[in-house]
Request: fold
Amino acid sequence: MEESELFKKRKEKIESLKADGIDLYPNDVKVTATTGEVLSRFGDMENDALAQLNDKITLAGRLMAARKFGKAAFVNIQDRKGKIQAYIKRDTVGEDAFSLFKRLDIGDIISVTGKVFKTKTGELTVEADEIRLLSKAMNPLPEKWHGLTDIEMRYRQRHLDLIVNPKVRETFYIRSRIIQLMRKFMDDRNFLEVETPMMQPVAGGAMARPFKTYHNALGMDFYLRIAPELYLKRLVVGGMERVYEINRNFRNEGVSTFHNPEFTMMEFYQAYATYEDLMVMTEELITYILKELCGSLTINYQGTEIDFTPPWQRMTVKEAIIKYCKIDSDILEDIEKAVKYARDMGLTIKEGEPLGKVIMEIFDETVEENLVRPTFITSYPIEVSPLSKKSAGNPAFVDRFELYICGKEIANAFSELNDPVDQRERFMMQLEAREAGDLEAHEMDEDYISTLEYGMPPTAGEGIGIDRLVMLFTDSASIRDVILFPHMKKK
Reply:
């Protein structure tokens, strides 16, 4: 039958149940156990021991399957902790309740109350002496859940995905656990969790295109934040020497298996620390999470085994390009040679592009995909790092690192630029880039410069992409698999 016909039949059944005085959506059930608690408490007991117990439990969940045998039936009930079997017998639950049960559909929410026993095959089962309908489902659950078209359906109708795919639910339980562990790690190191504005008058803290909105009462434009960085550093200036925030950022950019316009990051700042201190801290954080999640420092991601045992590999941007492109270092020292090399690769390089940006174009095209095991890439060009402190040995580069795993950036950190004069000059460089057509260049932020003029202690800061970290630890191929409601085009 077409789904519309099934929907029509269910509507007719609902009208029939209403006519018989059945409450389709009662709200007075008292659940005493989850399926997981029942399995944990009684799963190892023998039937004779179960028979001696007088304990009755009430559990509730979605009716996922039913095998009917005239005057009795076995059903599967699913709640947030899993599935369990229940045995429904007319002589036990009564004629009225059994008659109602026969009119239920797969997908309905029900409760059962009774004692626990084991079937001849050893399956733990609730023998119901009461069964109730708690919520009538009008739409039938999908019968088939495979293939490319259904993958898109999963993202568009996540509620169905969660109902029929236990592995998907497990992914989001793991996600929640990862965030809990991150908070514990930071809290144990005396970091203070804070919240900073989602709407900002200046889109700052990263080089990205923002979403723009307008506030009627204030009569001014705001931007959904691309990063919380400049506000968190204001707090460091204010004396909050260790702060972190776990929340959403918004970037008006492309969508891919590793990019979503709205994504979650943890960003943190520590006074009297350097980017090198944060490399060690990042190793400690990620290995701590791994040990707590799976008791091992080795995982398998999309068929590739990754060993997270510290210390992790470290290379400068130039060292990585030389290693994977097998080119002479002098190509990266001369703007004309670098531009020629990049264009010979097929890259589009604008006239007047500074050497640092050309180097990063080459890096992005040739190096990233090779960084499979955890790798810290350091010494980024100043042109792409407007908020980072200059390297003492070479002011054309900054004290910054990005962490790459499986060819993707997971974290970005640097020793913070705390010289207000230098910061103003960097912003001016960014404004020139914007005027030349770079829509991702940083805007001028006079209020932030004014804040720096009160003095910010030596500080290091870092942002870690939580969605990408969850992808790694759940072996998920797409960022849409780890975001409950990813953004998608209209059908």
About this structure: The longest helix spans residues 166-188.
